[in-house]
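Hi, here's the filled form for the chain we discussed.

Project: internal
Contact: R.S.
Residues: 406
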Amino acid sequence: MRNKLRTGLTGFAVAWGIFMLIVLLGAGNGLINAELQQSDRFLANSMMVYGGETSKPYKGLKEGRGITLRDKDFETTQHSFADNIDEVGAELEQGGVYISMGRQSVAGSLTGVYPNHVKINKREILYGRFINEIDMREKRKVIVLSQSQAKELMPDYEHLVGKYVKAGDLAFRVVGIYKNDESERNNGAFTAFSTIKTMYGKGDNVGNIEYSFHGLVTENDNKAFEKKYRERINKIHQAAPDDERAVWLWNRYTSNLQMNKGIDIIRTALWIVGLFTLLSGIVGVSNIMLITVKERTHEFGIRKAIGARPWSILKLIIIESVIITTFFGYIGMVLGVAANEYMDATLGHDVIDTGLFRATMFVDPTVGLDVCIEATAVMIIAGTIAGLIPARKAARIRPIEALRAD
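And the returned structure, exactly as it came back:
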């Protein structure tokens, strides 16, 4: 109470350390959760294969040749890598298709897919169902619309399932409506792969190949598999075995591994910065306790001269240290939690709309209450230890020496 400014500044350092740790962790969690939300849109152990363009001459053939994935590539994927690959599918798109019902119409694309597409790309079906094996086998003219497409065709779009719409000049029966994905245009409708291949005369073109896999745990396992797979597909198209541009592979599992490494680095960096901020508060408390002991040395000598025990001297310093760290640490914790709640209410719902897709930059930028309490407890314990060191020195000093101190 005699040194209000000094105590206030020390308390500010303590509160600031707790506050910054909680805010940094909250902001980091917001970015990390947003990234995890984006990666969760696909099945982790899945891979997409796209035709590319050769970048190297091979066997007398020049670079720059376009590679189109065909039935032989699909069969090779399905049978030659059965030890690791579970289900194989493909995407064959027909763009520039107008889907209409009565006077209402919407532009988009019609993509032929296998039934496993809904699992690999995690499409959420709102009404009806997705493409199934019977649709594939019988080449049914069925269609699954996006939520936005269905709204354009009929305001009460949940009743659209079972009705017929026209895709181009052909009638399709609506069997399902899937939920919009904010990261996409949502103008794509789906039908059976066999249907679109037959209707639009795609020959042996299979578009893009997609499949789920198992048994590839480490990054090295995945690299070895990708190398072997690329060599096999490149061989079919007379491309150099090591030409990575002839066939593009999107391995979502290794993408997740790399993302998790980045997340771990971010978390570690945030904790290091936060802990050093806490340390500044601890050093502040320690310095103040050292000054306090020096200023009150004469007082301690008088107390000991009239019978005060070492523990009573020790208790005076420790209680002061605990009060400062507890009171101001609690204030810092409350302000940190409030700042995180503010970020959640503002940035946590801020969506970037590029016109092509929408993305949330912050998702739940908060820290668990357990972390807040633990950080505050660490500050209190550290502050107590910081006060204990000079307190022990004060308790050990002899009365005569303390009375002589300036």
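Let me know if anything looks off before we file it.
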